[in-house]
Amino acid sequence: MKLDEIRAAEAKLLLPTYERNPVLFTGGEGMHLIDENGDRYLDLLSGIGVNALGYGHPAIVNTIAEQGRKLVHISNLYFHEYQAPLALRLTAASGLDRAFFCNSGTEAIEAALKIARAHAGLLRSEGRPLGTKILALEHSFHGRTMGAVAATHKDKYREPFAPVMPGVEFVRFNDVADLKAKFSSDVCAIIVEAIQGEGGIRPISPEFFAEARALTQSTGALLLCDEIQSGLGRTGKWFAYQHYDIQPDVVTLAKPLAGGLPLGAVLCTEEAARAIHPGMHGTTFGGGPLACAVALAVLDTIEQQHLLEHVTETGNYFRSRLNDLASKYPAIVEVRGEGLMLAADLDSADLAKQVVADMLVRRILINRTSETVLRFLPPFIIGKQHVDQAIDALDQILTERTPQTSASSPIGAVQHG
Ligand SMILES: *Cc1c(COP(=O)(O)O)cnc(C)c1O
């Protein structure tokens, strides 16, 4: 089928959950996606932060082929070779003790919320007065299932499905006073993203993060850190919370974990894991041999190819080039982010929409989140030449679409997180 036929068929046959861009991709290679006509697109979004090694990476392709021939699925009733080594790698990198594997980000969040509720129940049974409330943040995004969406701030994701999981209260973003006011022994967990993703690439402040850690520690509540988008090297460290020197109790992972295969994970402390016993939680597909084998190959590649260092270096270059644009175009209000999790916040949602469309015409993929925010989540293998190509395109588009400051305006006057 051709794009037009597929579009018409999907419009009739699928639940209308997506407004897709009118492109039909049939292949990919390195930093590029390839459409039905053989045209190549520079991908600065990597399937929303999933394809960290780009397209067709031999480590992923070969592992899928080999493991596909060996064993794809067995259920969690039996042992396979890869969950233990993968758990070992993730616990070593995170400083946490135990792992549970699932299939997606939202499932990792569900597991984290269940751990928090069960842990509070255990503490109550031991005589500590912990409640069931969960504090989440404004602009948060944690997923689409009934628990995760309850902790997701945007009304339009939550309200049509009410009642979602009860007991979540939202704290104003980076407002330490509001956090203190809303925290009490009723709270069993605070959930944060060190750098909010869908919420617009907003880094949490060190003061707020430290206060969340101190408050939870004071009562035995758990600090949950959602690293589904920011984790596994995206910001130049294995986990974004490591930029803050704060150790959470529970961490969720997914997007880049298995190189494009569905795999999520929740990592937690021994203390949090005390609440979980056989039969309390589980999954049919989660943590299967194929996905786990590929995840090990992804982590090996990140390490062997020194991609954390590369993400830091290329991310700094990308951010400084965005800052150059920001000093040229007043329409860029702020440049934010860390490593290869970057954003340019514009002064208008219409402009942001237009820029994404203009970039697509130039065969460069980015997206818009939080209305005004251009988001960049490129594969970790991005080179400076790809950054330059994107910046040149943005420069041309903003010249066409917006007014500029005089050429003499200082460079680097823009704040970033
Ligand atoms: C994408 C994302 C999720 C949800 O992951 P899914 O795999 O789409 O369920 C949760 N939290 C964050 C921070 C995310 O970026």
Give an account of the 3D structure.
α4 crosses α11 (289-304). The termini are far apart. 39% of the residues lie in helices and 18% in strands. It is of the alpha/beta class and 417 residues long. It has two domains: 3-56 and 306-401, Aspartate Aminotransferase, domain 1; 71-304, Aspartate Aminotransferase, domain 2 (3-Layer(aba) Sandwich), CATH 3.40.640.10. It has a seven-stranded mixed β-sheet, sandwiched between helices. The longest helix is centred in the C-terminal third of the chain and has 22 residues, at 307-328. It has helices at residues 3-13, 46-49, 58-70, 83-94, 105-125, 146-150, 155-158, 176-182, 206-219, 270-273, 289-304, 307-328, 349-361, 384-401, and strands at residues 25-29, 32-35, 40-43, 98-102, 133-137, 168-171, 187-192, 195-196, 202-203, 222-226, 250-253, 264-268, 332-338, 341-346, 364-365, 367-369, 373-376. Residues 104-106, 109, 141-143, 193, 197-198, 226, 228-229, 254-255 line the site of pyridoxal-5'-phosphate (PLP).
